[in-house]
Amino acid sequence: MKLFYLILASSLFLSSPKVQSQSETDDQKAILSVMKMQESAWSKNDLEGFMQGYWKSDSLKFFGGNGITYGWEQTLANYKKGYPTAEHSGTLTFKIHSITNIEEESYYVMGEYFLKRNVGDANGTFLIIFKKIDGAWKIVADMSC
What we know:
145 residues; alpha+beta; 5 helices; 6 strands
């Protein structure tokens, strides 16, 4: 009978939802803070400010409708070309579906973006990878469509 209770207790423990640590909660709040800053900067057509959420490196990867882009500078140039005015950038809102820990100081974020614009609204989905670099959360890879 003791074996039965041991097996039952073990299965309940293993099947229970993962309890999130305080550090994961703090990480997620910090990541959301970066994304709120990005929403604000984008909505002011401050693309350089928006890009502060990205890793300023040639190793940054952005995968979108036009294929893969490498590097912070080229990603910014693509944004400036595609969203040259405030009418084109519009107002950005993110809807976050999941922030999931990959490994220590790395998370992936899945969600949707919504651009409300006079030139026509645009919506899509994204999967971005955040990594803590030099004490700051930065996007190191972005797949948006």
